[in-house]
Every structure is written in C-alpha cells, then in structure tokens.
Amino acid sequence: MAGAAARLRPRRFEGLDRAAPVWLLAAAALALLILLPLGWLAYMSVSSRSGFTLAHYARVLGDPALQKALWNTLVLALWSGLLALAIGAPLAWLSARTDLPWRRTIQHLIMASFVTPPFLGAFAWVMLAGPNAGALNRLYRSLTGATDPLLNIFTMPGLIFVVAIYTFPYVYIMITNTLGLIASDLEDAAAILGAGRLQVAWTITLPMVLPAILSGFILAVLQALALFGSPAILALPAGFHTVTTQLWAFFQYPPRVEMAAAFSMPLLLATALLLLAQKRLLGRRGYAAVGGKGGQRRVVRLGRWRYPALAAGLAVLACAVFLPYSILLKAAFSRAWAQPLTWENFTLENWSFTFLHSATQSAIVNTLELGVLTACVGAGLATLLAYVTNRRLVVGHQVLAFLALAPVVIPGVVLAVALFVAYTRPPFLLYGTLWILFLAYLTKEMPVGYSQSDATLRSIHPELEEAGRILGAGRLRVLREITAPLARSGIIATWCFVFIGVIRELSASIILFTPNTKVMSVVIFDLKEEGQFGAIAVLGVFMLAMTFAIVVLMQAVLGRDVMGGRQSSGAG
Amino acid sequence: MRHSFMVSLLVLILAFSAAAAAAPDPRLEAARKEGKVVWYTSLALSSSEKVAKLFETAYPGVKVEVHRTGSQRILQRMMQELQSNIRNVDVVHTSDAGHYVLLKEKKLLMRYTPAGVDAFAAGFKDRDGFHYGLRATVNVIAYNSKMIAAVEAPRTWKDLLDPKWRGRLVTAHPGYSGVIATHVLALVHLNGWEYFKALAQNKPMLVQSAVDPSGIVASGERPVAVNGGDYTFYQAKKKGNPVEIVYPKEGVPLVVSPSAITSFAPHPNAARLFTDFIFSRDVQQVLADTEGLYTGHPQVTYPADKPRLPDLKLLTVDAEELEKRNEEIKTRFVEFFGA
User: Fold this and answer.
1) DSSP state, A182?
2) B255 SS3 class
3) How does residue A568 score in pLDDT terms, banded at 50, 70 and 90?
4) What is the DSSP string of A186-247?
5) How far is A255 from chain B (nearest CA, A)?
6) In A477-504, which positions are buried (b, 16+ CB within 10 angstroms) versus exposed (e)?
7) Residues B44 and B87 in one domain
8) B220: domain CATH number?
9) pLDDT, tens digit, for every residue of B9-27?
10) Quick one: which H or E segment has residue A47?
C-alpha cells in the first residue's frame, strides 16, 4: 500500500508541467480579486489620520442602534435559512425521487423563483401584502369584513418570508444535484436487507445528502446575510436596519467609511467561521458513493400523497412566482396600481415613460454588457479554479478554494466599498468605469460559480482523466478533450448562474455606479426611492423577460434543463 | 384637461423652437459643440424629464442627461465623484439650500446669473450670484379622502400626534430629501425635537423621497402623509386620486430649491444655455401650471385652485443653519424613527 502511495505521489507534481502558468495565473487573479479589497477593508477599519486605532471598533460595537442592526441581520439570516431549508429540501426530494405530477413544470417554476431578483420580489410583495393597499389584504378584508390586515409585509416575519421564497432554490439545487448523482444501489441493498422505506431514507439517503443539505442551508444563510434590496424595501419603511442597509447608510454624505469597515468585520469573521465549520463537518466525508457511474435512481411512489404534495409545491410557487409576477404585470399597465385594472385604469404610459427616460436606455446596455462579460470570464475562471482545487494541482489549493468561496461572506455593499477605495487611486483608477462593476460582479459571483463548477468536477471521477494521462496526454489536453466535454453542461450552467446573478446585482452596484455606468437594478432602486411603482413594474417585467430569454436560449442550446439537469435526464 | 394640456405644451414647444431658430446664438453653437448638459436634479423625475424634453426641443443638438435622485444623494454622489477626480455634473439642483452653502464654500460653484433673475423674489437669490431658486414648494399634510372624512382629517402639525393615527401615517426621510430636511428643521424651530419624538410614537411608515408620500396616500397604503411637497399631492389630485391637501395653520415650511452651475462643468456653455432656459418665464410658467410648483418669477401666474404663497403662513429656515445642522437632523431623525 505504502509503495503504491509513493508511486502515486510524483504524479501530482506532473501537474506543474506546461500547464503550470495557467494554474498560477488563475490563482493570482483570484488572490488579487479577493485579497486586495479585503486588505483595504481591514486597513480602513484600523486606520485614522493619526495612524493605527481601534476606536472605530469601539464605536460601532458600543452603539446600541448598530447592535440592533447586527441582531436583526442574524435573526433574518437564520430564519430565512431555516425556512429556505424547510421549503427547498422536501421540494428537491419530491422532484428528484418521487412520482410527483408535473415535475418538470415545478422545476421550471423553481427556476423562475431562482432567477427572480429578490428586490423585485420584495417590491411585488409590497403591492401584495402592504397592510392597507396590498392586494391580498384588500381581498381578505372584502371577504371577511375585517378591518385589520391579514399580512403586514413591513415586519421582520414579512421580510424573512420574502427572503426565504427567493433563497430556497439554493437549497433545492444543492440537494437535487446530489440526489441525481446518488445511485439507488445502496438504497436497494438496504431495502433488500429488510429496511423499511423511511428507514432507507433516514439511514442511507439522508447521510449521503446531508453535505448538500448543510451546504444549501449555509449558502441560503449567507445569501440572506448579504441581501441589500429586500431589507431596504421592507425593513427601512418599518423603521429598522439590517447590517447591509446600515452599511449603505454609512456612505451617505459625509461618508464614514472607517465605521463601515469596522462594522463589517464581525460579520465577516462570523461568516468565515461558518464556512470553516462547514468544511470541517463535511471534509472527512467521502463522496465515493456519489460517483460518476451510471446506476438506477429508484422512483418513490407517493400514492395518495401525490396531489397534496403537488398542492404544497404549487402554494410555495404561488408565493414566489404567480402572485408577484401577476401584480408586477398589473402595475406595469395601470395608472394606479392599487385600483382594479379596468379600462380607465389601463395605460401604456408607464412603458413610454420608462423607456424614454434617458437613464433607462444606457442602463440596459450596461447591464447586458456586464452580464455577458462577467459570465464568460467568471465561468472560465471558476471552472479552472475548481479543477485546480479538485485535482490538487498546486500547493495550497485549499487556500484557493477558501478564497474562491470567501466573497460569499462579504456583503455586496462592503465589497463595493472596499473596491471603491482600492480602485479610486493609482495604479488602478477604475471608479467611474464599467470595469469596477465588472470586478465587483466577478468577485461576488465567484462563490456561486465556484460551487457550481466544484460540484460538476467532483462528479467527474479522476479515473477518466488518469486514463488519458496514462495514455500520454498532457494535463491541458486531458482538460480539453476529457474533462471539458464531461463538464460542458456544468460550465454552461455556471455561465447562466453568473449571468443571472449579475443582471440582478444591486448591493454592490448601488455604491459603485456613476451616472454613466448605471445598471438596471440601480435605476429600479432610484425609482423605488421616488415611489414610481408603474415604472419599476415595467423595468422589472423587462428584466425578468430578459433573464428568461437567456435561460430559454441556454436550454435550447443544451437540449435540456440547465438547472437540476442531471436528475431530469435520470428520471425522464 | 389632458388634451388642452398637450396642446399648450405643443404651442410652447413651437414657441421655443421659433425663438431659437430666429436668432442664431453663438452660445448655442458652443453648446452644440459640447453636445449635452449633465443635470443632477432632485425635481421629481417626471417633471425633470419634461423640462429636459422642452430644452431639447428648443435647442436641437444639445441633449440633457437627467440624473434624478434625492437631494442628499446628489450631494453624496457629487462629492464621491470629485474625490475620485470625476468631473461629470454641469448643473446641480437640490432642495437643500444648505448644500449650496457647502458647495460655495468649497469653491465648487460657478458664479452665473441667469437672464432675468434680478426681478425674482428675494428668497430666491444668492447675494453672491452663485445660485438661484429654480422652484419652491411647501410641506403640507395630505390625506386620502376615501379613507378619511374631511371633519376627521388632521388640521395642524400637532394633530398628527394623536394616538388615533398610530400606524396610519407616512413620512419621507431627511436623509434622502432636501425638502424633508428643511421641513424637519422648520418644525424643530416651531415645536422642538420633542415633536418628532412624539410623532415617532405613532409609528409612521418611512419612505425616502418627498415625492413618495403622495403615491402612498393615493394608493391608500397609509391614509395620512405628515410631510411632502405640496406639488406632489397637487399632481396626484389632478390625476384623479382621492388626495386632499391641508395647509396647517401653524405655518408651512417653505423649501426653495436652488440651481447652480458647477465650477468644473465639463459643458459650461450648454450649462449656461440650460440655466437661462430653466429660469425663463416660459419654463417657470410650465413648472407652475403643470407641476404645481411655486417660482420666484414675478410674472408667473398660478392655477386658481392653489393657494398663493403670500396667503400662506410660511416657515423659513436659514440655509447656513441647515448646512450646520444637517448631520444633527439626520441623526436625530434616525434615532427617533429607527432607520
């Protein structure tokens, strides 16, 4: 055994052949991307005119209002994560492993929820569940004659709800992808040995999916932590801050950048620890059972639970998709969004007003340019990095993996500030150009891109590559001719994820934009602050249409679903 | 109503075009070479866009880039850009007179007196000639007349403190809007910070722009607005929304919104042309007629259904004090209202 290991070892260093510069470049790019802004953030948090200081920390940690914001964020993130898990996990199992009716439709709708910008969802829910004018509350009042509202979206539970219905797809994706990779052999074995259906699920399936469940949960929590738009739309009107809205408020004139830097550090630390804990928890678990080999996925018959399960799934999707989309469409064509859409209330003026607004046109162009550019570079870089870390090609690949995931712990607003400071001085004068937004998006989307690529590459067993190497192909050739074709759909999915992430990015853009580099989300936020419901609805509908066009195009190219593609091909 | 307005707009446009065509203006040539004027404005987006379109029709070849956001955001944006040596804005227009004290002190404004402003009312002119009041509005109370009977409606600022309004109010934010920052300072003079502390007990919904409360009240999301520019409510009412305006008898905070050219304007000729244009009687009249704003122009006439400024008890604030207490206003407001 020891001899075999010794014979294996040199092969790792063979990786450092002609391909080495490529890996090193990718690694350097990542380091620059992450470490430079993080360094600035740390520097700012302890510097003052007179040199080193801890005064900023003392101030932010001692301020009761800021403690409250911190607490609000923790409450929001934890509960949204749990709710997302409670929604996402059962849905994933239902759509991957059961005979749930309309599985494909459900998948498509979850996809819709996933690509819906959370701030648009939040905005739509203002129109649905604002305590007085909200459509659902009006309906409830007219049905029951009650005077009190049924729902008040401008509350912490309201905010948690809206965040969860747009973050549960993260959990769903993680779990369906894993379920799709697990063959039913082990489950069958257990069943043959006399285990009941529940026992199989509990002792065999669950442990194998547990890493995915935890990852999904942690990803959902981190998403909720970093969200800016939803709290800005739902928490601020109710008179409470979260960390992200508070950080954004720090940059109002006169800006208090040091305070913001100091205030983001505890959060950064906590989320970093969360990620490390996740690694510790999952690190020792082998994925051998989650192999790339074929194998049957057993379909669980739901029996008389089929339709109740379908109803539950549709109820979730009504909240995430049907209701918000309907109200957005209605508002886009109404003079007064809160009034019934009668002929008198119907108008096309919102559309002409929105698109004639000079800021809108350039914002659309900017958004598209940035989306395509970031998606191409991001998917490429993420795939390379995932390859390097999965095949352990360089020393310190764990650090690389950590760096690639690290931006997930940096709220977009904080990242933006760090970038702002880093790139408003020589040698990188990027503020005022689209490049600074590109860097922000690339950094911000790296964790999602990396996770996706990582999952893809993990599912491709190295033995195929090893076969290629044994037959004399170089690393890059193996990558090109064996790995890439196998990973193709994964890479395209990564592209999609990044593109969609960019299109809807708000929290970093809101700090980094200048009037000439506005993107659509910023225009929407501007309009929101002025209360232009009709125009926001128009831009929102437009943004969604654009996103769906990309998704449909991708699916046409791939010939199947981008998201959860594996299990749909397995089950279908 | 709508048609007659369109017709008058058309006539106006024709008049402007004719005027521009009649006299070849060397300044126009210079402005055309520059191609555009960049306008940071806190005037409601629809109103700003209207002014921009009028200008572009009057002076083809010179575009107006409208960047509309709240007064405080405009200042933040401008300072943030200057810090990075980005010189983007030509004409800056906010509703926080304090900003102009600051900008003037930092030497960021160009001294320019638009044609015809000498005759403007005193409160609209900077004695050093750097900025002039483009428009004015007063802060008012407004309510949704479908949800609240006229007899029940609040009549004074203090009426809003009645616990019966708990959860039924909406306020805009001084951290965003210059109109509201001015409003807060004026009412602090009148009733002290205690007033806002008490108002916060009624848990008003917090929105950002002084334009927003009118939409909130019109939709019925909250039946009463505790502040906001009267012109936004006036427009909402004109559009057929059930919105009624109350001018409290203790007085209404007057907000004169200055406009100035920046000292570093990248398109100085276009900026001057644009500034002359927006202070011309015709444009000032448009602001009064279709937007429901007040102006400093002595010849402008106002819609019959709007009270005249001299008939209102006006609460004014000193621009220098507004500048000095800007942070205090924002901080204390957040302290009371939570965000």
Assistant:
1) S
2) strand
3) very low
4) HHHHHHHTT--HHHHIIIIIHHHHHHHHHHHHHHHHHHHHH--HHHHHHTGGGT---HHHHH
5) 8
6) ebbeebbeebbebbbbbbbbbbbbbbbb
7) yes
8) 3.40.190.10
9) 566 665 565 555 555 678 8
10) strand A47-48
Total residues found in chain A within this entry? 572
- Per residue in B106-147, pLDDT tens? 999 999 999 999 999 999 999 999 999 999 999 999 999 999
Provide DSSP, B257-286: EEEEEETT-SSHHHHHHHHHHHTSHHHHHH
| Shared domain check, B264 and B122 | yes
Q: What is the token pair recorded at A447? A: 């964790």
Prediction ipTM score = 0.89
Tally the C-alpha atoms within 13 A of residue A535's C-alpha that lie toward its C-beta.
Answer: 23
Nearest to A542 by CA among A302, A306, A363: A363
Q: What angle do CA B128, B132, B134 make, to 5 degrees?
A: 175
> Which two three-digit tokens encode residue B314?
């006006």
Q: In this structure, are residues B254 and B314 in contact, taking their beta carbons and an 8 Å threshold?
A: yes
Distance CA B169, CA B208 (A): 14
CB hemisphere CA count around B203 (13 angstroms): 9
What pLDDT does residue A29 have?
A: 82
Residue in B closest to A355 by C-alpha: B49
pLDDT of A569 reads 30
Full set of structural domains in chain A with CATH:
14-52+357-530 (1.10.3720.10), 54-282+312-337 (1.10.3720.10)
Do residues B60 and B30 both lie within one domain? yes
Kind of pairing, strands B63-68 and B169-171?
unpaired
Closest CA to A98 of A206, A167, A179, A214: A179
Pick A515's closest partner by Cβ from B67, B75, B339. Answer: B67
**Scanning every residue of chain B, which has its alpha carbon at the shortest distance from the alpha carbon of A425?**
B84
Which residues are CB-neighbours of B214 under 8 A, at least 6 positions away? A531, B142, B225, B228, B232, B233, B235, B236, B243
Domain enclosing residue B35, as ranges? 2-133+257-306
To the nearest whole angstrom, how far is the Cα of B182 from the nearest Cα of chain A? 16
Percent of chain B with pLDDT over 90: 89
Q: Which two tokens stand for residue A140?
A: 């409830």
In chain B, alpha helices (H): 2-22, 26-34, 45-58, 71-83, 97-105, 178-191, 193-200, 212-219, 230-238, 268-278, 281-290, 319-324, 326-337
Sign of CA pseudo-dihedral A46, A52, A54, A56: negative
**Strand partners of residue B206:** B171
Are B183 and B248 within one domain?
A: yes
Which tokens go with A509?
A: 């853009």
| Tally of structural domains, chain B | 2
Q: Residues near B152 by Cβ (< 8 Å), separated by ≥ 6?
A: none
Residue B38 shares a structural domain with residue B52:
yes
For residue A134, which residues of chain B lie inside 8 Å, CB to CB?
A: 221
The minimum CA-CA distance between B235 and chain A, rounded to whole Å, is 13
Q: Is A559 left (phi over 0), alpha (psi -120 to 50) or beta?
A: left
Q: B338 vs A241: CB contact, 8 Å cut-off?
A: yes
* Residue A566 neighbours by CB distance under 10 Å: 23
The model carries a pTM of: 0.88
Same domain membership, residue B147 and residue B126: no
B143 and B76 in one domain? no
* Claim to verify: residue B142 and residue B154 sit in the same structural domain: yes
Can you name the residues that pair with A425 across neighbouring β-strands? A428
Write the pLDDT tens digit of every residue in A147-166.
Answer: 889 999 999 999 999 999 99
- In whole angstroms, give the CA distance from residue A338 to residue A134: 7
Per CB-CB distance under 8 Å, the chain B contacts of A249 are 175, 334
Pairing of strands B314-315, B252-262: parallel
The answer to whether the CB of B43 falls within 8 A of the CB of B258 is no
